[in-house]
Amino acid sequence: MISEEQLAALSYPAMPRMVSNEFPGAKARAVIERAMQFQSPTRPSVRGRLVIEGGRGAGIQDPDGNIFIDMSAGVAVANVGRSHPKVVAAVKAQAERLMHSAGLVSETTVALAEKISASMPEGLRGECFTWFGMSGSAANETALKYAKAITGRTQIVAFEGAYHGVFHGTLALTTRENFRKPYGPMMSGVIHMPYPDDYRPFLDLEPEAAAAACAKYLDHRLSTPNTGADDVAAVIVESMQADGGYLDPPLSFLRAVREICTRRGILLILDEVQAGGGRTGKMWACEHAGVVPDMMTWAKAVGGDLPLSGVTVHKRYQDKLPPGSQVITGAENALANVVAMANLDILLDREDDLIGRSVAVGEEMKQELIRIAGKSRFLDGVRGRGFFIGVELVADKTTKEPLDLKRVGAILQRCEQLGVRIMSCGRYGSTIRLMPPLTITREHFREGLRLFGQAVSEIESETAG
Ligand SMILES: Cc1ncc(COP(=O)(O)O)c(C=O)c1O
After folding, report:
1. What does the radius of gyration of the chain's CA atoms come to, in whole angstroms?
2. Residue 309 CA: which ligand 1 atom is closest?
3. Is 93 within the bounds of a domain?
4. What distance in Å separates the CA atoms of residue 437 and residue 358, rounded to the nearest whole number?
5. Which of ligand 1's atoms lies nearest the C-alpha of 243?
6. Which residues of 131-156 are buried (b: 16+ CB within 10 A; e: fewer)?
7. Domain of residue 403, residue span
8. Are residues 322 and 358 in the same domain?
């Protein structure tokens, strides 16, 4: 297994390191002002105060010279850390040879498709083909179209809390109102079902029973005539729901969904865009449940430092798809391909065993977080696998009332002032997701948690009990 010293060498020598008198500092503020003037207000960093100028391993550097511990891995993208030396070497070697390859067959695309196939869970491994895109949204859009073309059916089942993207098709699957409302009407033919949430379980049942009830309700909905559910092409589901609250449902849920789909001739699309790529302690999160999808969508961690996504489909559907009907000009970029291959090699290296390490270190950090939560008024419901760890911020641990967004925002801002980058998520916006690079050292992970705990406790003490 890779040593802590080897991992430390991938990041900045001292993290965090806050050197500017104020945060954001003058240089960062100037960049933010220009972003407000020249970038669209719909950009993801609209409320952001942290400006990134450099990134190394599990560290982020801003223009004022501050260095932050990155507990978000660039939204679960930098699983191997930013600018990993092997990735940088792959970029340098490829850049002078070929980058753009639209409309042509290229060796790096074929090689990546083979590597992706080899990385898949048994049942897809060696028995699949892949379409390439540049974002998770694009991969899911494509999977929806494929499901319709393959089955000749039109409806899609998705789950409450899901985030599958922001384009017109995928937006209809995504349930967050702030994304949907300005852009209606949505694509029709989408049915949303409850997704198990062990912290606030469906129908107030115990987690296993709640998961079983979710699956049973799905089966019921699909078998009830005249409800629009008799024409379903696919069920799309995150193996572990990410944006919806870093949820880790009982494994029985995904197995039950697989069984229902198989029995009803419905395709199962697993969205592994955020949970995949080694984040949960397996290469693909569905491997925990031993569930094999008909199609898997993936993006973030596979592409890493360059944008890349894909839909990997069981080969039994190869003849069902109209040749040349799903094309994106900038996809199959050779630079992105070699970066993805380097990422897969790093993640799947047996000697370094980054994924195996994330199981052990993730468990240690979860215990540390449970300890911190035990002393806190706001922190509750620690859960997760590997480096996919969620914790709730609540106003009241008994009622589980979510903490108001103002205080959640204040905690995250305080984290940044202290030198740690942390993100929230969840249906109420009050879940904290801890998703650092798999290459973070134990020491940095623990320090990130300590600073997070400090930020929470400072906001707690400003709040009347
Ligand atoms: C599970 C899941 N699916 C799809 C997407 C969309 O990916 P992208 O932002 O690359 O379009 C995301 C993004 O966070 C995601 O978490």
Report:
1. 22
2. 10
3. no
4. 10
5. 16
6. bbbbbbbbbbbbbbbbbbebbebebb
7. 4-85+352-461
8. no
140 CA closest ligand 1 atom index: 4
> In this structure, are 171 and 296 located in the same domain?
yes
In the reported structure, the alpha carbon of residue 326 is separated from the centroid of ligand 1 by a whole-number distance in angstroms of 19
Q: How many domains does the chain have?
A: 2
For residue 6, report the distance from its CA to the centre of ligand 1, in Å: 31
Whether residue 24 contacts residue 49, with contact meaning beta carbons closer than 8 Å, is answered with: yes
User: Of 299, 332, 365, which residue sits at a domain end?
Assistant: 332
Atom in ligand 1 nearest the alpha carbon of residue 138? 11
Domain with residue 8: its CATH number is: 3.90.1150.10
What pLDDT, on a 0 to 100 scale, did the predictor assign at position 47? 84
Are 104 and 227 contained in the same domain? yes
**pLDDT tier, 423 (very low <50, low <70, confident <90, very high otherwise):** very high
Residue 230, pLDDT > 80, answer no
In the block, which residue shows the tokens 């949960």?
280
- Cβ(271) to ligand 1 under 6 A? yes
* 4-36 pLDDT tens trace: 999 999 999 999 999 998 999 999 999 999 999
Q: Is 342 part of a structural domain of the chain?
A: no
- Ligand 1 centroid – CA 412 distance (Å): 22
Q: Are residues 169 and 242 in the same domain?
A: yes
Residue 317 is given by DSSP the state G
Domain CATH number, residue 285 = 3.40.640.10
Out of 159, 241, 300, mutate this one to test ligand 1's pocket (max ligand atoms within 8 Å of CB): namely 300
Neighbour order of strands in the sheet with 54-56: 54-56, 59-61, 67-70, 420-421
**124 and 200 co-located in one domain:** yes
Same-domain pairing of 122 and 246: yes
Average pLDDT over residues 306-311: 98
Q: Quick: pLDDT tens for 172-206.
A: 999 999 999 999 999 999 999 999 999 999 999 99
Show which of 332, 364, 386 is a domain's final residue.
332
- Out of 43, 45, 72, 164, mutate this one to test ligand 1's pocket (max ligand atoms within 8 Å of CB): namely 164
The SS3 of residue 423 is strand
* Other residues' Cβ atoms within 10 Å of the Cβ of residue 230: 13
Does residue 340 sit within a domain? Answer: no
Please, are residues 31 and 63 in contact by the beta-carbon 8 Å criterion?
yes
Contact 456, 411 (CB under 8 A): yes
Residue 345 lies in a domain: no
Q: Would the CB of 433 count as within 6 Å of ligand 1?
A: no
